[in-house]
Amino acid sequence: MTDYKNKTVTVIGLGKTGLSCVDFLVRKQAQVRVIDTRANPTGAEQLGADIPLHKGGLNQQWLLDSDLIVISPGLAVKTPEIQTALSAGVEVVGDIELFCREAKKPIVAITGSNGKSTVTTLVAEMAKADGLRVGMGGNIGIPALSLLDDDYDLYVLELSSFQLETTYSLKAAAATVLNVTEDHMNRYVDLEDYRQAKLKIYVNAETAVINGEDLLSKENGKQSAKQQVSFAEHNADYWLKTENGKQYLMAGDEVILPCDDVKISGRHNYMNALASIALARAVGVKNQGICTALRTFTGLDHRFQLAHFAHGVRWINDSKATNVGSTVAALTGLHLKGKLHLLLGGDGKGADFSELEKLINKPEILCYCFGQDGAELAKLSVQSQLFDTMEQAIQALRPLLKSGDMVLLSPACASLDQFSSFEQRGEQFTRLAQSVE
């Protein structure tokens, strides 16, 4: 455990995570002050009156006078003021680093461009079903430091590349990079820069769970765990067996569960299930708990979720598809009787959309593009229309719907150009879907 008593610690960024850092450091008797670049930061009213707050920008002198800076994942370490502090010898960490210095129980650590929230939740459900007390958080749900307030047997953390950039003491019992596809290219130099941030999760891990279908997710010389297992459709430790028209989740020669018994569906979700099984077994979760969770877990809100079904038309909310790779996963292996009406658009975060072209430029797929990068997406298919908003797009597609069709919101973009969050975007889609009657 690190001694923070009487140390001058500057926390950058409020919100739930920033406040959890402040609470933790106050209890450790540090001299805490807070910077938030927003003029009216969320959570400012919850700060104690004795904690100084600088709003509307970074305070370089505060940073230089600090013994430690705890930086929000939303602010890049490459920011000039942070680089100046680093050059002056000030230590810069994130909340996950503070957590890892304190945690005494095993940690399952999960990152990836897509699927990490599903896998994090599923692993936690598997462990709970096996009778373990599980603390789940990080980039999903509860800030990691808040998990220290309870007595858990196991921590299951979703970690973003931003969080991993400032984490140095993680020693995961099991860790995975589920996949690496272009995302946050407005923050990283290139795909390799982004990948290296993700691969930090493997450093000092006991077991690395590797995606056998994604070379970019594999360890390299700098990041290596003590042992490695793989998941993939074929030729992996955890794999998908197809026999007599049925599919099975496998661990070597052992059948874990028939896919017909698994609540979540689609090839990408079977890959998520295999990764979850590998992670859970790596920390000793027994098959009974694993199978119970797979039989009951219905998936996450806004992740390929059935929003409405009427007149033979399925409306699918995949608003959490905030990057190209996530939309590719949703489209791969999709079987339809009728046409696919695909809603695309939002803030592409500097991504290259070209990977979508071969998947969507098909006679049975009609694209309805909207938002900040709608025009770029509309260029990918000859069967695209461009709208200002998602609501306008849905109004246009409604008269065309026939039994057997699917309306899929899988935008390949962040939502913040027109919505407060991907959740709000998904909720609007669901409302519009249900108002068809």
Structure commentary:
Helix 5 (116-129) crosses helix 8 (267-282) and helix 5 packs across helix 9 (287-296). The mean pLDDT is 94. With 437 residues, this protein is an alpha/beta fold. 29% of the residues lie in helices and 22% in strands. The protein is globular and about 65 Å long. The protein has helices at 15-27, 60-64, 80-87, 95-102, 116-129, 161-165, 191-199, 267-282, 287-296, 324-331, 357-360, 374-378, 390-397, 422-434, and strands at residues 8-12, 31-36, 53-55, 68-71, 91-93, 107-111, 134-138, 154-158, 174-177, 207-211, 227-231, 238-243, 246-251, 254-258, 305-310, 313-317, 340-345, 365-370, 384-386, 406-409. The chain folds into 3 domains: 8-93, NAD(P)-binding Rossmann-like Domain (Rossmann fold, 3-Layer(aba) Sandwich), CATH 3.40.50.720; 98-296, Mur-like, catalytic domain (UDP-N-acetylmuramoyl-L-alanine:D-glutamate ligase); 305-434, Alpha-Beta Complex (Protein-Tyrosine Phosphatase, Chain A), CATH 3.90.190.20. Strand 9, helix 7 (191-199) and strand 10 (207-211) form a beta-alpha-beta unit. The protein starts with 7 loop residues before the first strand and ends with a helix.
Q: How is the secondary structure organized here?
A:
Elements: E1 8-12, H1 15-27, E2 31-36, E3 53-55, H2 60-64, E4 68-71, H3 80-87, E5 91-93, H4 95-102, E6 107-111, H5 116-129, E7 134-138, E8 154-158, H6 161-165, E9 174-177, H7 191-199, E10 207-211, E11 227-231, E12 238-243, E13 246-251, E14 254-258, H8 267-282, H9 287-296, E15 305-310, E16 313-317, H10 324-331, E17 340-345, H11 357-360, E18 365-370, H12 374-378, E19 384-386, H13 390-397, E20 406-409, H14 422-434
Helix pairs in contact: 5-8, 5-9
